[in-house]
Amino acid sequence: MVATSATAGIFSPPPFLLRRRRAPSKIICASVVSAETNPPLATTPSRPTASPSSESPLTDGKVIQRSTLKDYFAESTTLVRETEGGPPRWLVPLDCGPSSKDAPVLLYLPGLTGNGLGLTLHHHRLGKVFDMWCLHIPFTDRKSFMGLITLVEDVVKIEHSRAPNKPIYIVGESFGGCLALAVAARNPSIDLMLILSNPATSYGAYPFQTEALLPATLMIPSKLPSSLFFVISLLSGVPLKMVGEKIGKLLPLEQIIGDISQDTEALSAYLSALSDFVSIETLVWKLELLKTGATYANSRLSSIKAQTLILASGRDQLLPSKQEAERLRKIIGKCEVRVFDESNHALFLDPDIDLVPTLSGASFYRRGLRHNYVSDYLPPSPDEFQKIYNPQRWIETITDPVMISTLDNGKLARNLDGIHSQGPVLYVGYHMMLGFEVVPLVARFWEERDIILRGIAHPMMYVQEKEGQFPPLSSYDIIRKMGAVPVSASNFYRLMSSRSHVLLYPGGVREALHRKGEEYKLFWPEQSEFVRMAARFGAKIIPFGCVGEDDVGELLLDYNDLTKLPYFKQAIQEITQEAVKLRTEAKGDVSNQDLYLPILLPKLPGRFYYYFGKPIETQGREEELKSKEMADEVYMQVKTEVEKCLNFLKEKRNEDPYRNIFARIAYRGIHGSRSQVPTFDF
Question: What is the model's pTM?
Fold first, then answer.
């Protein structure tokens, strides 16, 4: 990354940085580059880089401790006291590397306070997948909005000239969102990716209008008291999040009180540092700057070509962020919105928010000109996985899945010990009604084997060509966070070539939306293409079956019933027309790809059962399986094995004394809530 200014030269770290490097505490940044007084760097001090293969935080065995709000306020206090009075500068965080060699650049543009450490809670993850530079604008700096645009714009142009085939990410928070939109509007030919957190383009609805403050200036001291900043911080939601985070950890009361006291002390020190430098004149000038920025950005929204992701807080007390996000989405061409209903204005300081999984869920991370669903996937860290899975954990809790795998010697194991860690492996099986089995299946592989199952999913979860009855794309974010990709030959090829563990349901939509009496019936097409693709890379094919859908619900109204009712028939036709068409050349029942939502009558939950059969080897059979006849033979072998797995489970589950949920509750009441409940003998 190259800093911007007029002439070339050598950069020397200021005393602030040198003192931080000698200190035992965490270093804020690798370099502090003043945009005015420092020349550009021919080679900038950069963080170490890692190869793309070592990027996965799930499998590399390294756990990077996430910074806390206390860390943020402590570092911000030092930054404010050491840099106030100087010009804007770029910070390069050190607590987040190393990034991969092909990582795109990310520029962070702060809110009205100008604090360049606004992404502190996310440095540990963002720094692995981005080359991060954060703009810090001292609060007393009087640079105009056009001056700030030029500052950012120069960096963007230099980075684009260095790597024209890589996107440049700009993360704009509040006021920084206005700045990001302005830069994007002025540079439509540069590949920019905008991430806007509660952008302040809704300044017209801002409760603290400059015009309202001006008459009050004579009644307020020239130095603003820290209590005013505390009130503003309360509106941002940060103090309440600090308290909630400590209580949520269920620590001993003495420790909770001590931690809250330390956090409050750090917050007070930061607010005190701000109040030492800020006068009412500075505050009013900042609000005028915000007004200018919002007006400038709003006047140029239609010129923005950049792909945009807006993150909106549902409990923003400073801005009407949800409404503003929807307004911007309708104006900006390539724009998506993600709403965080429980978050306040300071979204990036919310400990419950993880930015990297949010980008992954929105398919908003790419290293090249186009998004690659395979190589651009960002696996969640163990902590992030728990946050993703916990809201869905109730499915596993009430169904208590039994996983049975086949060992190399042919014996069965009550776990996933028969699953080999080395890929590529293709898991081919039966799709329960509405895909009930997927979440527990993916979670067990993740938790027991450290294996990411890359599912092949319907394109409707990734692309919506028009608005209609389809749920918003954000409804499927969890599918993308778990690593699923849209079905296509190219994605299948990439998964196999990257030695992935791939989850495939040949029955697709028709199987997952079956009719009454069709439970555990396979609706597979005649094509055997997945066999030849597996053989091309020597992948193991593991057939599996899963049963239990009829133990959690009864199909009350199916497709045949609903299409007899005019209202539902029209809705089914409309939603089917909105979806990407698949298997248009198929014949028979499998060609019916109509989408509908069945009406289910819940039952007292039974149990889910999974059985993974003996692997079918394709290693060394590539030439042999190029023959359609031989590939069809293996295809029928896989299908037969899946049916055998289903029949085995349907028969054996009748011997399970703990198939009923009450029996399992009673067992755990005696043996402990974490004990494994027995099942049938095998």
Answer: 0.84
